[in-house]
Every structure is written in structure tokens, then in C-alpha cells.
Amino acid sequence: MATTPSDQLKYAAAILWQRAEWTTDAIAGSCCDDDHDIELDAITDAACEIRAMAEKLGDPRTYSDGRQVQTTREIEPGVYTVHVWHPDPSAEQPRSWRGSLRHDPDEQCPGVFEVTTTPETQEIHVRTVRLA
User: Fold this and answer.
1) Where is the stretch described as Disordered (predicted)?
2) In angstroms, rounded to a whole number, what is the distance separating the alpha carbons of residues 126 and 97?
């Protein structure tokens, strides 16, 4: 499947935005963001500029063939996973990853989750297992 230049820019904008959010959240969560305000602002500003360019080419949430640019699924209340779909679904392989459910460091882990993507159908499957 051939992708259009607008689809490629929408993909790049969505990937940049997702990674900028993740990076700035991780830095802010590490309690060392006071020394990095300028750098965090620069990352966010770059993501906003690229996103604004993509918005000029139509709905930034959908590709030219009508597929979604990204999908969000809840793992547990307040915890989400976001996947940005490649503009050419044949270029993307299914992915799976696992992690621990949220818990305080001094508490036992309440369970695990597994996320699987299906590029052909743009589905994200989330499975959680709570430990007894």
C-alpha cells in the first residue's frame, strides 16, 4: 500500500507527540525537571510545530484511507497505552509487551498486564491478571 506524504507527516507528528509526552512525563516524574525546563519546553514546542503542520493536511486523527493514526486503550483505571499505527499497515508487525500493574514500591505487585497490537484491524488487546 502506498502512503501519501500527508499520511507520513501525520505519522511522524503522532510519533513525535507521543514520545515527547512520554519523555517529559518521565523527566518530570523523576523530580529533576526543575533543571530542565528549557529543554522540556523545546521538545514540546517542536512537537507542537510538527503537529500543527500535520493538522493543515486534514484531520490529524485519520489517514487518507480512513484508518486511525493512533488508538488508546485503558490498562487499568488511570493507566493507558497508546499505539501510533504505521501509515502502511503491511509495514507493521503485531507487537506484544507486558508490565506490572501500578503499586507503591513498598507493596506487593497486584498483577500484570499484556498488550498486543493487531495492525490489520487496528486493535489493541489488553489482558490483565490480578494476583491473589
Assistant:
1) 84-105
2) 10
C-alpha cell at 119: 495492525
**Per-residue DSSP letters for 97-121?**
EEEEPP--TTS---EEEEEEEETTT
Q: Which amino acid is at 82?
A: V
CA gyration radius for the chain? 17
Beta bridge partners of 116: 96, 125
How far is CA 6 from its chain centroid?
A: 19
First to last CA, the chain: 47
CA distance 108 to 117: 28
Distance CA 110, CA 101 (A): 6
Q: List the beta bridge partners of residue 82.
A: 72
